[in-house]
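fyi for ur records
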Amino acid sequence: MAHVYREVKRRAELLEKLELAIPGYRGYKERELRREADRLIREHLLRLLEPAYRDFKSLMPLVAERAEMIQLYSQVQALFDRVIAKLRTASYGYSGFFDAVKIREAELDKLLEYDWSLVSSVEKLAKLAREAAASEPAKLGEALSSLRGELLAFEDLLRKREEILRGVAGGS
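which gave:
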């Protein structure tokens, strides 16, 4: 087994030497690593949102008993669905050779920082969803309204992320 590890390590070292020798490859590789990091952060956000969404969905039986809550619940569900879809389909910070707007390393770094800042917002969403799932029926409307407000704020953050990608926004 040790010989397999040594062979893999030797090949990795060889690849690193080649990267240094080929002009332009290092920058290309760094951009690819940044894009991969961006994708991993967004996948992490989705993994954080999944339990929050389950907590929210657990409210359905309680909402079904209170007709006045159905519209608010539906609004929150639509927001959750939109936010999750936007995260799943968000651009990786990739710009093709012929794209009009090129995404450079500085923009990718900015995007990575911005995406990482989204983690605290998702953690707040998860906390609000847990609290809503544990709330007493009398406070359900207030809990759903708080969750809706935070989802709207998070959706705005995702919209700003797209502006950063397009080069429209000046900063985060």
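Residues 94-101, 168-172 have pLDDT under 50 and may be disordered. thats all i got for now
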